[in-house]
Amino acid sequence: MITLFRPWLDSIPAQPAPKPDAPTQTPPGPVPVQSAVSRPMPPLVTVAAKAEAEKNIRAMSIVNQIDTVLQGRLMGGPLEKAGIRLQESPEGGVEVIVGLDKFPTVDDVTDLAIKKEIRAAIAEWEQKYVPGA
Asked: Which stretch of DSSP H or E encloses residue 58?
């Protein structure tokens, strides 16, 4: 996190400490606001951060990896607030949580849109993280 904030912190000019015997100055007037279009913000996620996230996902279990892909797919979409997540079952399989409902397998999910989104996340995971897939 520090490496992400460092460039921003370094761009803030340091304010000199006032001298104890110096007369007080009136603060400067308001600074004109620049258009947000004229100077876009740099992306917060750098290439190094993406590489770190990639390394972290490979350290997770397969179910957690697929759930991470699923959460990324759900973000900003119509199913984002549905409370969909995947977790490992005690038997080593996958359980699907949808809000307060728990389904023992993906096939048991009753909502077809949710089932389709989970299957799409699995396919995306296979493309990204399964060698030779």
From this structure: helix 47-58
